[in-house]
Amino acid sequence: MQLGLELALTGMVTVFTFLILLIFLTSLMSKTICAYEKKTLQCKSAASVTADDGKIISDEILKTVITSAIQQHRAGRKNV
Fold it and tell me: Considering only CA atoms, which of 39, 61, 42 is closest in space to residue 51?
């Protein structure tokens, strides 16, 4: 019984440590890439959406497009 508890605790600590390390390294990588991109281009926030031509799409246009897509999906249309 005690061996099972030790194994479970060791496993949980290992997973928790790995996840904390993963979060830290992902944040560090994001900051590094964003700092590198600021040298060449403006680093965009995660919330900004760009079109194929590189222009930022406004929230109102994005809301209209998403609403239209949901309505078409609910209507059962597969092709526009």
Answer: 61
Output phi, psi for 50, to 5 deg. -115, 150
pLDDT (tens digit per residue) in 19-54: 999 999 999 999 998 888 776 655 555 456 666 666
Question: How does DSSP assign 8-22, residue by residue?
Answer: HHHHHHHHHHHHHHH
34, 28 contact by CB (below 8 A): no
Q: Are 57 and 49 in contact (CB under 8 A)?
A: yes
The structure's pTM equals 0.45
List the domain boundaries for the chain.
1-43, 46-80
Helices (H) and strands (E) in the chain, counts: 2, 0
